[in-house]
Amino acid sequence: MTPALTRRGRVAGLVGLVAAASGIAAGGRALDAIVIPVAIALAAGYVQVSRVDVPAVRHVTPADGFVGETREVRLEFGPDVTGDTKSSRSFLADVFVRVDDGLDGPTAPIRASVGSESVSYRVTYRERGERTLGPIELTVTDVFGLFERELVVDETDAVTVYPPRDPIPARFRRALHAADAVDVSRQREEFDRLREYTRGDAVRDVHWATTAKRDEIVVKQFSAETARNRVTIAGGTEVGGGEELSGFGAEDRSPSAAAADELARATVSLVLALLDDGVPVDVRLPAGRVSASPGDRGRREVLELAARTGPGAVAGDEADVTIIAEADGARFRTGDRSASFDDLRREAEGERPADGDVGWSRTDGAADRQGVASP
Predict the structure, then answer these.
(1) Which has the closest alpha carbon to 55: 155, 142, 132, 141?
(2) Same domain, yes or no, for 200 and 248?
(3) Contacts of 194-199 spanning 24+ positions with Cβ under 8 A
(4) Residue ranges under compositional bias (Basic and acidic residues) (predicted)?
(5) Which residues, in sequence order, are bridge partners of residue 72?
(6) One domain for residues 32 and 106
(7) Cβ–Cβ under 8 Å, residues 98 and 110
(8) Is the pLDDT of residue 156 over 70?
(9) How far is the first Cα of the chain from the last one, in angstroms, to the nearest whole number?
(10) Farthest CA pair distance, the chain
(11) Rounded to whole angstroms, how far apart are CA atoms 345 and 322?
(12) Cβ-contact 369, 362 below 8 angstroms
């Protein structure tokens, strides 16, 4: 885009024209005092702005995070950020970064000396999914503020926003993997093999005879430690359609997109709680499946799957837990019993529903007064 006069530049040009007309009428004596300095400033400003090239830019992106978190993003300008050895001049500009609809970004341009300093701004994660930072709009001005020029830097980057996580009560989690705990205790005496000691191993598991023959500690490993049961979880929505999640605001999201959000939130809440308990999980959602073990890698795999999943039917009926999500909430189903995600969340937060009966109900409509025993 070619340089254009700013409001200040138009005023300066008008003053110069009036001074020139007055000087001509007065015999040219006022030309040196006003007209020539104004003309020089306008010419210098035009040349300065017109010689600016689109700068190299690099986003220093923040870490992925959960809905509701706020992070700082930094922009670095200049050839150094791309490895280019060509020198570039710094210039004044108003920097404005456009961000994805699922993010809250800067609302006003940031004044900066591009090329000599970095620019920082804050974003708040509002909706799950892969969200885009950029492009970047620059309004370049000269030192006098007489001319401006619009530049667009098509440099984008992305962050992954995870669904929010809610607490799940301990008695519900234990009911899912209590059988696994029994299996571990029964298989404790079934010797599997010898292995090197790792931090956290119990002293009672040290195999002293082998340790005495080697320069390292050797421990016994039992079959329960090599073949621990997994909890399988399958999730889906009961709302048809496959609209894309992007493009829907918080106030006009489609029912299928809202149901997908509920599915992702319920899945993340349950799976992360189980991983924190040390229980491995298999997760199947409309966007794919993962087998996750306790640890950072397993957590990230589950979070990324939940961040990108959309609406769709439940994949398979043989799961230990089936999550059925609608636009207004989700339910966990195991066998012929189901539990509301909202009720479990309130229970975990110490809030009981008015009827005082949180937990399981028969999916066929029959009353189930036994429930699941509290720990």
Answers:
(1) 155
(2) no
(3) 194/218, 194/219, 194/220, 194/221, 195/219, 195/221
(4) 335-355
(5) 122
(6) no
(7) no
(8) yes
(9) 69
(10) 114
(11) 17
(12) no
Q: Which residues in the chain belong to E strands, given as ranges? A: 4-5, 57-60, 65-66, 70-77, 91-99, 103-104, 110-114, 119-125, 129-141, 147-153, 157-162, 191-196, 218-222, 231-237, 281-285, 288-292, 321-326, 329-334, 337-340, 361-362
- Of 226, 241, 271, the residue that ends a domain is 226
The answer to whether residues 244 and 354 belong to one domain is: yes
Residues of the domain holding 198: 192-226
Q: Residue 117 is which amino acid?
A: E
Please check whether residues 221 and 266 belong to one and the same domain: no
Cα–Cα distance measured from residue 165 to residue 303, given in angstroms and rounded to the nearest whole number: 10
| Structure tokens, 260 | 């997908």
Pair 201, 86 in one domain: no
Q: Cα 49 to chain center, whole Å?
A: 38
Number of domains into which the chain is organized: 4
DSSP notation for 216-265? S-EEEEEHHHHS---EEEEEEESS-----STT--TTS--HHHHHHHHHHH
β-strand pairing of 231-237 with 321-326: parallel
pTM: 0.75
